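Allow me, if you will, to draw on your knowledge of protein folds for a short while. Thank you for your consideration; the sequence and its tokens are set out here:
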Amino acid sequence: MTTPSDSTTGLPLPSRQTGALSHIRVLDLSRVLAGPWCTQNLADMGADVIKVEKPGAGDDTRHWGPPYLQDEDGPTSQASYFAACNRNKRSVTIDIAKPEGQKLIRELAMQSDVVIENYKTGGLKRYGLDYDSLSALNPRLIYCSVTGFGQTGPYAARPGYDLLIQAMSGLMSITGQADGEPGAGPVRVGVAVIDVFTGMYATTAILGALEARHFTGRGQHIDVALLDVAMAVLANQGAGYLNAGVVPTRQGNTHPSVVPYQDFPTQDGDMLLAIGNDGQFVRFCEAADVDWARDERFATNSARVTHRRTLIPMMSEVTRTRPTSEWIRLLEAASVPCGPINDIAQAFADEHVQHRGLRVEQERYGEAGCPPSDSVNRICSTASPLRLSETPTTVRYAPPGLGQHTDEVLRDNLKLGSDEVADLRAKGIL
């Protein structure tokens, strides 16, 4: 069998209607969040993503509830978590533990540009589905492995989870209230942020490998580890330690290097001020009718950092004199960065969020309606934030039902007849 190339996949070329990656096929063997987040990015940009799931069970996140997807009668047994990272994909059920299933995966890999998996290091080698095995069949294949700790090192065999990595990387040590404050102690970020960052880094690496393939003609193996990503996204906090020897500590909503950059109480609640330079501080003082900008203790950011314990109580006393909405109106007019501290419902109700179309509602089955095995048709998700002027992201498939596209993919991609598909299903392969 010949090795596929960009021009022989049979996929449509990039356009405004198809997306930037419409000529790319991705075989998604990943589960939970980091890998699926990556493949959803690729799918939103038009890639044909075939998501392989375990028959009868599927991706772990299909069961991570509550909350649950709803049908006409209310909540179902399908967790809403799955909808966060599986839009625009086709779901195929294949049991990769069985030789017949492994054969199907190999055949799909031979037609694919990218394979992504997040099994434990070396976990797919026993099935003949590792990088060496699949790249021998398809030298142009880009194979992305997402693990907790990477393909090498003393922790390589360990399973990795976002919470564990937040703890081990030091991220939790700088998240939460400062020691001595009420509620002090390490706190995880409210979203599995390392999984999400890992998915974004994996997306970037895959796009880089695809670009390199134009010149080398070959694919490559990508090793993306949650711990590596977590250490990288420590950003300024990591750089501060590495270059100045300063071990950062928790400081709640305050910033170690910028003041004032935090929440403040108002007459009816709280607001967020993000004053990032001296000019913005001057304008805040003018709007608040105070003369602190002329005080040498507060005239520069460095001085404000040094004297934050004096400045912040003074500011809090002033911000309590007006309601949040009045402060925001006043400060926005003065070009001072500020905003309300919304809950998620308030955030989605925000007029700007609505204008940007960040809520997407899709039908899983369309006019055909739900099959007997599935009662969920309408699903909401957050829109892709990627805005490309010439090849915009596309919305094609709702987060799929388990195995929703199995027959379609096996028929169209592998040219299997209905009898062959029925036989595989009877054997428990599908």
Observations:
- The chain is about 35% helix and 15% strand.
- Confidence is low (pLDDT under 50) at residues 1-7.
- The two ends are 24 Å apart (CA to CA).
